[in-house]
Amino acid sequence: MKKRPLIAITPSYSSEGYVKMKPTYLDAVWSAGGMPVFVAYTKNETKLDEYTALFDGFLFAGGVDIDPKYYGEDITSDEVEVCDARDGFELALFERVKKTEKPVLGICRGIQLINVGMGGSLHQHIGGHRQKEGGTVRNQRINVHPDTPLAEISGGRTEMLVNSFHHQAVKEIAPGLRAAAYAEDGICECIYLPGHRFFIGVQWHPELYWHLDRDAAALFETFVRAAGDE
């Protein structure tokens, strides 16, 4: 029996001091053939190095906002909600992971973390991207650039319908990264690192509807398959 690739998933951190994660992330990775493990926060450099060496792929999940200080700004919106412990942990882990060839998938906050971790910036607050419907409803149309990993994953599709639950977004794309999709209002919805076997961030939440949508399922399958490559 082939060993499942080990996929590290970064959890949220509650105000009561608990780590937490929606099971949909775990279900999506399991279904795609991976072994999902959500990882404890740590500032210990040795433990961070061990995480980087141990796992085959890294999924940076959704959650609260990244503190603007990490891209050289003060907080300018009352809508910004940050978690210092999570920011410090994820950015330190990402700093290590990005130096490897291991696959990276960022979802919602995760795309923003990738961009900030590579030297980009964010819109601190935008309107019109928090749908009221449930997560399986996909009513935001995005335009997919041809000749990008997202286009390949979606079978050459130039448009996709996705869900939307965010109020921050990629602003200045980090050096080295490229956009793969934009919403109709010009907000960047997907970024990737050219030449990497899998290094993608998406602004939507495919883990909420992977069981209903072939493109969402294919995103996780491609990620896990890349993590299983020797």
Describe the structure.
It is a single chain. The chain has 230 residues and is of the alpha/beta class. It has a single domain (6-228), classed as Rossmann fold. The chain is built from 6 helices and 13 strands. It has helices at 23-31, 45-54, 84-97, 109-117, 149-153, 214-228, and strands at 6-10, 12-13, 19-20, 35-38, 57-60, 104-107, 122-123, 140-144, 159-162, 169-170, 178-183, 188-192, 199-202. Helix 2 (45-54) packs across helix 3 (84-97).
Q: What is the end-to-end distance? A: 16 Å
CATH class: Alpha Beta
CATH topology: Rossmann fold
Proportion of residues in extended strands = 15-25%
**Given the helix and strand composition, which structural class is it?**
alpha/beta
The number of strands is 13
- Oligomeric assembly: single chain
How is the largest sheet built, in terms of strand order?
Answer: 4-1-5-6-13-12-11-8-9
The shape is globular
CATH superfamily: Class I glutamine amidotransferase (GATase) domain
